[in-house]
Every structure is written in C-alpha cells, then in structure tokens.
C-alpha cells in the first residue's frame, strides 16, 4: 500500500521500497509515517502485532517493538522510532524536521522525548493497554480508575501545549518540526481511544486541527483498528 | 566539583561551565557524564532528587527528570539525555561517539534506545524503584519477586551483549560509541544495586572491565549514594 504519491526525484532511495512494520494504533509508528510522508519517502505498510512475539520479527528487532523499517534488498532493519527519524533527517534533505542551531535542535529533541516518554507513559500507553491490549490479548475489561487518571494527565499535557502555542507558532519554534509530528502522533492515538477532551484547550485544538488537514495525516485518520472504533470527532478536520 | 581535568582547548564552551543536575544512581545522567568526560567537556555536578519535585527544577525541565544540563550564563537548559548527547556530538568534534555511515549511526542509536528503554524498563528501573526509591522515599521494603524478575531479565540482556561482543569489538561496531556508554551506564547502576551476576557472561564481563578502567568511568565508580552500599566487586577493575 502506498502512502500517497511522491515524485521519484524526492525519494531517499530511488527504486527501493521500505517496509514499515507497524500496527494502526502504534504512536511511534505514526510519528515515523508522518515524517516519511512529509519527506516524500515511499514505504509499504506491513502489519505487525508485537505482542504476538513472532520469531522473525524478533530477528529484525531484538527489542521486540514496532516500528521497524526494513529494506529487504540491502538486508537492513532500522529500529527505534527516534533512530529511524534521525536516519531520514540525515539522508533526505527535503522538509528538514530537526532544524536550526544546535540549541534549537536540542529543543526539538527535548519535546520529542517529552511526548515519546512522558505523554506515552502518562496517557497513550495506559489508554492502549486498557482499551486495546486488554481487549485483544487478555480479553479483560478496562480499569476505569486507570482510564480516569490517563485522561486527567492528558489535560496537563494539553495545558503545556496551550502554553507553547501561546508563545510559538509551532511546538518547538517558528517552523514545523519533529516535535509537532511526535506530539500529533501520540495525541491522535489518545484521541482515537477517547482519552482527549478538547474543551478548554483552544490553542492545542487549533494547532492540532491544522495538523489534521495535512496530506501526511489524512491516511492515518482514515485507518481503523479492528474491533475498536474512535469517537465521531476523531477524523473530522473541523472538530 | 570538577569531573577530572581537561585542557582548555578541548572545551566545547571555553570559559563557560555547565551545571549537570543529577543524582549518583541515575543511569541517564551517568551516560551524559561519560560522554562529557570522553569529549573533555568540563561540568559541575549539582545534586537533584527529582522525586522531591522542586519548583525551580520543574521550571528548567517540565518533564521533571534528570539529567538537565544548565548554562546559567546563556540561560539555556538542555533536557533529555539523548538530546543532550546529540547536542555535544554536534558541537564538540573530539571523540565522536555517533560515528560512521547513516546506517552505522542508526545502529548506534538503536542500541542506545535498547539500553535506555528496554534495559532500564526490565532491569535498572525496577532495581532503582525497589532498592532506592522505596527506601529513600516510601520507607518500604523491596519486593523480592520484582528483584528476582529484574535479575532474570539482566541475564537475557547480558546474553545479548555476549552475542554482540562475539561479533564486534564494541557493541555497535569496530569503535567505541554512545551505545557502549549507554550500556555501561545502565549496567553500572544495576551492578551497584546487586542486580548483576557476571558468571557465565565472559564476553560481557571482558567488555565491561575494559570500560571500568577508563578515566571517564573511574569518578562514577568512586561515588556512593547515601544509605545504599554496592557489592564489593562493584568498583574493582579486575572483578
């Protein structure tokens, strides 16, 4: 499956097609997909459920996690979403997403880590565990206490985004960066799982709605994870 | 406190002194300290217990985590250990630690993530929680079931290091890299907390003992966390 058409000249590896191992609600795979799409790098989607612990998948990534970006021709497997993003920053000039002075680049990477680690640990990770893993893997009901705490912490993260957008056009500064992609990827998964209450977050909602209308984001919003349905506002650009 | 003498010409920011906010058993601060020392960047150690939630500390890093590297003269705070390491790779040429082709750099970053996330999540994180945080913060006893599981998983990680060192001189390839610093930082904390059984890990032990004798590592091994003592072999170079 192609992630949108891109001119051949814009490809990082002309004639070669990367295979992205992922599942639809993985926020780290979403970050990589947004970056690849913004940079015009073509890739195929390969579905991987890391919780099934497939031997062939562990052979590609001993950490047992998605995303993995595999190039069968060269026999290369890139693992870890931040390592993958740095790789494409280094090899594809188009739409630089870790840009500016060293201090500005450190600020972009700080925010990427904040969303990859803190937002995921506080919000999208617990939501995925309660609403997806428990349902698909353990056949258990979600723990409403854990869900409430994740939604409470989501508000704190959205207040921080409100604050940043009060001071800057984009999360890390004057231009769109990997920080925006990382944040949007995490938030989109939390939003799919019903964990985001947008009321009282005007700035964050404005920033996110601009994102939702980007061509790189549309394919993500149209995908569905089996058995789990998103709320009605999830894929609406004006919501 | 100085982290060893370095010639002025080798400093990334001559005449300026970075302040590193950390506590002695933070594996991420240890990784940054190893990198700064290998690169000859001077810094002062500032003690921070992130679990105390100091307002001034949260103002520097909204994620509330160490390490933070602060430059009071420029009013800059660098947060997140990987962002800090990338910053010094970009600004200080000496002893490049994310080196080689883009694929090799991706391999270094994959392994850094493996130790920062998987080893920490499986081994050093649970050990720190059970043996340090519970004692210092909650005044509770460690859960022996959690400790046993962390030590079991430590063996799996050491087997992977054995495997890597069977195929390469250093973890990510032919030269020392940030992957070695990240792994040694995590392992040193787990070893301090009695979580590492070196028997049956000849390759990993050989690699680690070379590391322990490096000038960048010696200051770390001589420090002690209040009330918690390491096992006798911890700081011995030949152990």
TrEMBL record, chains A, B:
Q: What is its EC number?
A: 2.5.1.18
Taxonomic lineage of this organism? Answer: Bacteria, Pseudomonadati, Pseudomonadota, Alphaproteobacteria, Sphingomonadales
What InterPro entries does this protein's entry cite? Glutathione-S-Trfase_C-like, Glutathione-S-Trfase_C_sf, Glutathione_S-Trfase, Glutathione_S-Trfase_N, Thioredoxin-like_sf
- Name the Gene3D superfamilies for this protein: 1.20.1050.10, Glutaredoxin
The record ties this protein, via Pfam families, to: GST_N_3
- State the protein's name: Glutathione S-transferase
Q: Name one GO molecular function term.
A: glutathione transferase activity
Asked if the record carries the keyword Transferase, the reply is yes
Instruction: Provide this UniProt record's keywords sorted from A to Z.
Output: Transferase
Residue ranges constituting the GST C-terminal domain according to the UniProt record: 101-234
The GST N-terminal domain, residue ranges? 16-96
Which species? Novosphingobium marinum
